[in-house]
Write a structure and sequence with these properties.
Number of helices: 17
CATH class of the largest domain: Alpha Beta
Largest sheet: 4 strands, mixed
Number of domains: 2
Structural class: alpha/beta
Strand content: 15-25%
Shape: globular
Radius of gyration: 25 Å
Number of strands: 17
CATH superfamily of the largest domain: Periplasmic binding protein-like II
Distance between the termini: 58 Å
Length: 430
């Protein structure tokens, strides 16, 4: 009985202290958190921080200035308790499961945050759902991500390419459109167009792939896909270009996209606009098309509905004040009112605003934003399960191997891919 009385008294005292300490104060007011921020983002993040601190004047938000992938590398090499790991940080959707499995991510109240931010028609059907594992939201939507097609206008005119219509990949010269098809990041735009599944899960959760089928059992669209890829490789191989050189390919793409060269169309992301504008000489000489304006064997190219989220470190999950402050900061970073400022600083396009939110932004940025939204609408959902990580090297190594094995036709080229994927699938069954 004495023990019960002491417990009750302690509880009452604790309640009294909390009540007195929180009277008249905003949530998170006395908390201190850190946020990962890339160098170019700092001015925008400073403004977002200032808006949060106006409502929470005794709070502290520190910056850890580092690249998003560099920050993820630190997490992978250590754990969430490392002082160099921020309390709030950006993550790509495909890292969610790995980070969750390593107990890095705190659960957030995504639905409430979405209501506070506004603009989400169906939170779970978009990136909100992509950042949900089991019944928990583990990150908040930051930006949509997909690929678009950039056009060097002068080069397109010289090559007679009409960019007002659908553009068939097979009708172009081998350098007229350049894409790193051996890199799955670009390659999936081609495989998706043909409905060729590199790795998926069936209704029972079993891993499946089209890449282990016999060539004769592939669909006609799948066969045409590999005929197109084989012919693309053959032309580049015979003309000794660097496209199939994993190291030199990037420099080759940059050199060929300059005005007066043979390349008119290049696939890349919205983040590449500024660099490509400089490469073609002016913004007026750079056109941006939605990816689905390019076809392969009559089928529109289609990338992924990818994106990034803002996550909270699991080490602060039990600290309500820090969690509240983290949520407030995230909500302010993606505040639709500042969508244009966010894009100018980071190149990030919000999911929860209409394209009209970017009216008045400079012409080049508007081109990129409009094309990205249209490409995103026709893109397919990105696979997020951890086993997909094996596809990157499996696809790339098998397609790059064509330059060593010199396949004589599409079937032989496909069989190189088939052998690699059979080996990959075997590792899942051990």
């Amino acid at each position: 009985m004495k023990k019960i009385i002491v417990t009750v008294l302690l509880a009452a005292a604790t309640f009294n202290l909390v009540a007195c300490g929180s009277a008249g104060k905003s949530k998170g007011e006395d908390a201190t958190i850190s946020v990962q921020v890339e160098k170019a983002w700092v001015p925008y993040y400073e403004q977002a921080r200032d808006r949060v601190l106006e409502k929470n004047p005794d709070a502290t938000i520190n910056f850890i200035e580092t690249g998003s992938f560099d920050h993820l590398d630190v997490i992978d090499a250590t754990d969430s308790t490392n002082v160099d790991v921020a309390d709030v940080f950006a993550i790509p959707a495909d890292r969610l499961y790995k980070l969750s499995n390593n107990n890095v991510l705190a659960a957030i109240d995504g639905k409430t945050m979405a209501d506070n931010v506004g603009g989400f028609e169906d939170y779970d059907a978009g990136l909100g759902g992509a950042f949900k594992k089991d019944d928990e939201y583990l990150a908040f939507p930051y930006n949509i991500e997909t690929l678009v097609a950039y056009v060097n206008v002068e080069n397109a005119k010289t090559l007679g390419i009409d960019t007002t219509k659908k553009i068939e990949f097979n009708d172009l010269g081998y350098e007229s459109m350049l894409a790193l098809v051996h890199d799955a990041w670009s390659g999936v735009a081609f495989t998706n167009s043909a409905g060729f599944e590199l790795l998926a899960k069936d209704a029972d959760g079993k891993l499946i792939t089209d890449a282990t089928k016999e060539y004769k059992d592939l669909t006609e669209d799948n066969k045409k896909l590999f005929e197109s890829l084989f012919n693309y490789w053959k032309n580049h191989n015979e003309n000794k270009t660097d496209l199939w050189d994993k190291v030199a390919a990037g420099g080759y793409l940059d050199a060929k996209f300059t005005t007066g060269q043979a390349n008119a169309i290049r696939i890349d992301g919205p983040w590449a606009a500024a660099a490509l504008s400089e490469r073609v000489g002016s913004e007026e000489n750079l056109q941006v098309l939605p990816l689905n304006q390019i076809t392969l064997n009559g089928n529109e190219l289609s990338h992924w509905k990818g994106g990034w989220g803002l996550a909270v470190n699991s080490r602060i999950e039990e600290d309500e004040s820090k969690m509240d402050l983290a949520a407030s900061l995230i909500e302010e970073i993606v505040n639709p009112t500042y969508a244009q400022d966010l894009f100018k600083a980071t190149g990030k396009i919000l999911e929860n605003v209409e394209p009209s939110a970017y009216e008045g932004i400079d012409t080049m940025n508007k081109k990129v934003i409009d094309a990205t939204y249209e490409s995103y609408e026709t893109a397919v959902a990105r696979p997020l399960f951890t086993e997909w990580d094996n596809v990157w090297t499996t696809w790339q190594n098998s397609v790059l191997s064509w330059s060593n094995t010199n396949p004589k036709n599409a079937e032989e080229a496909y069989n190189q891919v088939k052998s690699s994927f059979e080996a990959m699938m075997a590792t899942f069954n051990k």
